[in-house]
Amino acid sequence: MNKKLERNLNRANKKREELKYEINAIKSDKYITLLELDEEKRLNEKLVNDFEKIGGRNTFSYIGGLKGEIGLLTEDIKVLNKELSKQKPSKYQSEDKTIAFTFNGVKEEQCLDTSLEGMKVAFIGGVESLIPLYREVVEYFGGNFYYHCGRCSQGRKEIETLVSKTDVVFCPVDINSHNACRYAKKACKLSGKSCYFLKSSSLTTLRNVLVDFAGDDREGIVEGV
After folding, report:
1. Rounded Cα gap, residues 221 and 33, in angstroms
2. Contact call for residues 135 and 145 (beta carbons, < 8 A)
3. Are 218 and 113 contacting, i.e. CB atoms less than 8 angstroms apart?
4. How would you class 176 by CB atoms within 10 Å of its CB: exposed for 0-12, middle for 13-18, buried for 19 or more?
């Protein structure tokens, strides 16, 4: 009887030691897990800080804008290469010979008759690297060029100020902020100015639209007001 009790006691002691070992192992694992969680939290905080430094959520829209710019620049390069390959001087070349105006799908007679007659033209959004070319296109047709990048850091005040100085507003919708388009539409409506939304920010689109606008052939231009 005593031997049986002794065996049971030994078994109980052994089981207790096993349980103590398991408890210590669990504690050790828990400690390691806490350390890993702290490290993960630190890394997450670092990622958030780094993300905010490069623009936060605006970074995604900025990257999307850059991709759009690359696509448009590639499109314009193809058009210019096609024009240059013809090896013919254009009669619509600007005086400083920086742009050769060959209008795809636009009759030459329309180009000759096109004149903005000193109108103040605002262009909101689009590809910022093309600003000098946007300006040259507008000025070629006798207009005065005004530009806004489409980023509204000061709210709608910037857009309203621009609209108040101009006669007509063009907003490409492929590379532009939603707020810029909305502010432009509202500002034009309040001031009685015309606002047109363009499907593309390309130079070809702007040139063709200006020909249609100046010639009162505005079918196909999406008016915002």
Report:
1. 62
2. yes
3. no
4. buried
Max CA pair span of the chain: 121
Using CA atoms, how far apart are residues 52 and 50, in angstroms rounded to an integer? 5
One-character DSSP codes across 155-203: TTHHHHHHHHH-SEEEEESSSS-HHHHHHHHHHHHHHT-EEEEES--SH
DSSP 3-state of 48: helix
CA gyration radius, the chain = 33
Determine contact, residues 55/62, Cβ cutoff 8 Å. yes
- Which has the closest alpha carbon to 115: 23, 217, 214, 216? 214
Residue appearing with tokens 């060029």 = 145
Local structure of residue 130 (DSSP, 8 states): G
Alpha helices in the chain (DSSP H): 2-53, 58-85, 108-113, 131-140, 157-165, 178-191, 203-214
pTM (two decimals) = 0.54
pLDDT, one tens digit per residue, over 182-225 is 999 999 999 999 999 999 998 889 988 998 888 765 544 556 54
pLDDT digits (tens, 9 = 90+) for 146-175: 999 988 877 788 899 999 999 999 999 988
